[in-house]
Write a structure and sequence with these properties.
Helix content is 7%, strand content 32%. By secondary structure, it is mostly beta strands. It has two domains: 436 residues, 6 Propeller (Neuraminidase); 59 residues, Dockerin domain (Type 1 dockerin domain, Orthogonal Bundle). Strands 1, 2, 3, 4, 5, 6, 21, 22, 23, 24, 25, 26 and 27 form a 13-stranded mixed beta sheet that branches. A four-stranded antiparallel beta sheet has the order 7-8-9-10, with no helix packed on it. A four-stranded antiparallel beta sheet has the order 11-12-13-14, with no helix packed on it. The chain is globular and about 70 Å long.
Length: 503
């Protein structure tokens, strides 16, 4: 399959990651701490609302321009020509477990369209399904019950491109010992293979502090014969249900053939820097436990340290708030960036921006944190400049006044043009209808109502077209001064700066 990946860039990136394998923390690593305020300014523009818990946005790669929104409660919705269609593309709400309205990590979690979807109509979904527990299951008898994680293939209806055939073909399934840490991301890589993530199975401490250890004597993440706590890579274009590519690192040796990387706690979202200008790197956000959140560059066969490490710090499952001063880091790979829980509690992975509408964002990894506060909607927007060394998180400036987000960040997304999105909700759990999807754009300069970089007649027209409309500050078309209202002030600022470029 054609790829935009430069072999030289991949070699350089691989060498930089391998330098961290088995190393102690050095100045080459981003030291955890409070994430500083950066100067990269963005606006968010709403594209969909009335959802429950959106976790992913993506295009189908079929030239239609549609946005597909994955909602944790079991439905995939479509935005077509700016309108959220009322009928779901796919509805699996009857197949997933009954979700806890206050907080849950099960449900519909990931979606990937086949690279040739326009011709074959194939797509792949990661979701949770209820199961009957057996004696010894930690989930047995709990209020949430037991479940399994599955990877299934579906196809679009032959008669309607906005409706899918609801019949799944199950490709992969694995029992989960607890309700949380399910991973959920699924993507095709630049190599044409399908990658998907699984967390360590849930609970805490990879089960090692349970009596007896609920995930086995070494936990799941460090067990090469367990699927949990890994990123997997499979070929879905050959024999049914799939084959493991022969260059997967554990084919022909001890370990499961599907494993691509291991030692991960909850790699909920990952992405490839695979658009023009990117180097193909697989960026993975691994959600931490008590103290640290991390970003990893994923390379085949590497061990990313959980449960020996949390971030770049030694970890003791029997005292998770007190990192030991040293531990055996042999063969472990350190994260490329991390932060501690003084800033946020759960990293939400994103994408390296390679679009065209926001030149200031190009080359920045845009991601976020679920919330700075465990029970309140206080999501945080981050960027990482990929040209910097070492890599480091910075908080982005939101709107003209850097106003709080006041929402939980549930996920991120990217359309077929490389534009990025945040999935947000006021409700903490997968319930209600406060879920929204917002387009991320570099902040407009004063007067540039249409964001084309020049203040001209188009900006006047945009302001008049949306006269007397109100938005959140900095979000809406026509709002030339980003104060949240389209009125005479916007005409005044546009005329005062007429025919001047943004700088």
């Amino acid at each position: 399959m054609p790829t935009n990946t430069s072999p030289l860039k991949l070699l350089i990136r691989a060498c930089s990651v391998l330098m961290f394998a088995g190393a102690t923390l050095t100045e080459s690593h981003a030291i955890a701490g409070v994430v500083p305020q950066g100067n990269l300014a963005v606006d968010l523009v709403k594209v969909a609302s009335g959802l429950s818990a959106p976790t992913q946005v993506l295009g189908a790669g079929d030239g239609s321009g549609r946005l597909f929104i994955v909602d944790q409660t079991g439905r995939i919705r479509i935005v077509s020509n700016g309108v959220l269609l009322p009928t779901p593309f796919l509805d699996l709400s009857a197949s997933i477990p009954a979700l806890n309205a206050v907080f849950d990590e099960r449900g519909l979690l990931g979606l990937a369209f086949h690279p040739d979807y326009a011709n074959n109509g194939r797509f792949f979904v990661r979701y949770s399904r209820p199961r009957v527990g057996v004696a010894g299951d930690p989930c047995l008898g709990t209020p949430r019950g037991c479940h399994e994680e599955v990877l299934a293939e579906f196809s679009v209806s032959a008669s309607d491109p906005n409706i899918a055939d609801p019949t799944p073909t199950i490709l992969f399934r694995v029992n989960e010992p607890q309700f949380n840490h399910n991973g959920g991301a699924v993507h095709f890589g630049p190599d044409g293979y399908l990658y998907f993530s699984l967390g360590d199975g849930g609970g805490a401490n990879d089960g090692l502090s349970d009596n007896p250890p609920s995930h086995g004597p070494i936990g799941n993440a460090q067990n090469l014969n367990a699927y949990l706590g890994k990123i997997h890579r499979i070929d879905i274009n050959g024999a049914f249900p799939y084959t493991s590519p022969p260059d997967n690192p554990f084919v022909g040796t001890d370990g499961l053939d599907e494993i691509w990387a291991w030692g991960l706690r909850n790699p909920f979202q990952f992405s490839f820097d695979d658009r023009p200008g990117g180097d193909g790197t697989l960026w993975c956000a691994d959600v931490g436990q008590n103290l640290f959140e991390e970003i990893n560059f994923i390379l085949p066969g590497l061990n990313y340290g959980w449960v020996t490490m949390e971030g770049a710090h030694c970890f003791n499952p029997f005292s998770p708030n007190a990192p030991p001063p040293d531990c055996d880091m042999t063969g472990l790979t350190m994260p490329v960036a991390e932060y501690d829980h003084s800033t946020g509690i759960s990293v939400i992975g994103g994408y390296v921006y390679r679009g065209t509408r926001s030149p200031a964002l190009v080359g920045h990894y845009i991601c976020g944190d679920f919330s700075a506060l465990p029970a309140s909607p206080a999501g945080v927007l981050f960027n990482i400049d990929t040209a910097e060394s070492p890599l480091a998180f910075r908080k982005m400036v939101l709107g003209a006044d850097n106003h709080p987000l006041a929402r939980f960040i549930k996920g991120t997304g990217r359309d077929d043009e490389g534009e990025l999105y945040f999935c947000l909700a006021v409700n903490r759990g997968p319930s209600g209808s406060t879920g929204e999807v917002w387009h991320v754009l570099q902040r407009r300069c004063m007067g540039d109502a249409d964001r084309n970089g020049t203040i001209d007649m188009k900006d006047l027209a945009d302001t008049l077209m949306h006269w007397n409309t109100n938005y959140l500050p900095g979000t809406g078309p026509g709002d030339a001064n980003s104060d949240g209202s389209v009125n005479f002030a916007d005409i005044t600022i546009t005329l005062a700066r007429f025919m001047n470029p943004c700088n």
